[in-house]
């Protein structure tokens, strides 16, 4: 039986992760009083039931003052031989604030105040859980289906946890640099398909544009050097415990050159990646949407 404690920053996806585990036939309990945790673990881990094979327990700041007792309770459980795993869901402050605004919810630690202050306080209170976590999943750039895939991979298929998720993000400088980018590369020095009539309306996802951009010797040389540097950096980031790396590749509008180079880097990294890898074209359709709004 697997006993998983699901926790994390409010708004990062804890409830969603619990729902996915429930779909995977985990017996799920959310917000159990902390003082009952040891008794609950003892009862479930000693059960030999066909109905309850795995257990997931949601814990967060709603536990209030009892949260202060959790660290000692977990230490005691570990000494007594209880086997448990901690899954910690996290996201950047900017993404969390945006999610709260979109859902029009109040932060549990700042019901009448600013969301950012609630997040800051919550991070401090949950720091000990993050430090002890077996799995940290940063959902800042994850789609719901991507989170589900990661949950299933770890807790159903029992595959090795990829502690680092690398996001390759194409963007347009005229729309701003991604605020969460760790590495930013400017490919505006490459030949621009925008000035080729038959390519202007296409994007870097079209083969004609891809071939045009990568046909330049500077593009292949840049891709070689970028691949070499990124593959050098990733193991060092992993050793430092980094769980999310966002690589931004930008051109003027985020439609042609940046998309092409993002695709090329993603393909090169995917060939032997032992970490999570995803690609996103942030501004691919923005020019089209802007023209429609102007009409």
UniProtKB/TrEMBL annotation:
Residues 1-158 form the RapZ-like N-terminal domain. Keywords: ATP-binding, GTP-binding, Nucleotide-binding. InterPro entries: P-loop_NTPase, RapZ-like, RapZ-like_N, RapZ_C. It comes from the Bacteria. GTP binds at residues 60-63. Pfam families: PapZ_C (PF22740), RapZ-like_N (PF03668). ATP binds at residues 8-15. Signal peptide: none annotated. Residues 165-284 form the RapZ C-terminal domain. GO terms for molecular function: ATP binding; GTP binding. This is Uncharacterized protein.
């Amino acid at each position: 039986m697997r006993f998983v404690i699901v926790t994390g920053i409010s708004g990062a996806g804890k409830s969603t992760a619990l729902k996915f585990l429930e779909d995977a036939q985990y017996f799920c309990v959310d917000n159990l009083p902390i003082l009952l945790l040891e008794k609950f673990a003892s009862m479930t881990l000693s059960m030999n039931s066909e109905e309850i094979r795995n257990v997931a327990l949601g814990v967060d700041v709603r536990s209030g003052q009892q949260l202060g007792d959790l660290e000692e309770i977990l230490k005691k459980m570990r000494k007594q031989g209880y086997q448990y795993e901690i899954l910690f869901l996290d996201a950047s402050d900017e993404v969390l604030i945006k999610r709260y605004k979109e859902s029009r919810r109040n932060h549990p630690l700042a019901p009448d105040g600013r969301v950012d202050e609630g997040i800051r306080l919550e991070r401090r209170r949950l720091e000990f859980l993050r430090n002890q976590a077996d799995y940290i999943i940063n959902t800042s750039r994850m789609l719901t289906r991507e989170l589900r895939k990661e949950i299933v991979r770890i807790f159903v298929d029992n595959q090795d946890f990829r502690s680092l998720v690398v996001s390759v993000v194409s963007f347009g400088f005229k729309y701003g640099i991604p605020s969460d980018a760790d590495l930013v590369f400017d490919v505006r020095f490459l030949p621009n398909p925008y000035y080729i009539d038959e390519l202007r309306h296409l994007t870097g996802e079209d083969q004609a544009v891809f071939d045009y951009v990568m046909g330049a010797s500077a593009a292949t040389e840049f891709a070689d050097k970028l691949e070499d540097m990124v593959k050098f950096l990733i193991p060092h980031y992993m050793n430092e415990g980094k769980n999310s790396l966002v690589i931004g590749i930008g051109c003027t509008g985020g439609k042609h050159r940046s998309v092409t180079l993002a695709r090329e880097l993603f393909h090169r990294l995917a060939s032997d990646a032992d970490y999570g890898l995803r690609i996103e074209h942030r501004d691919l359709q923005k020019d089209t949407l802007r023209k429609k709004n102007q009409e």
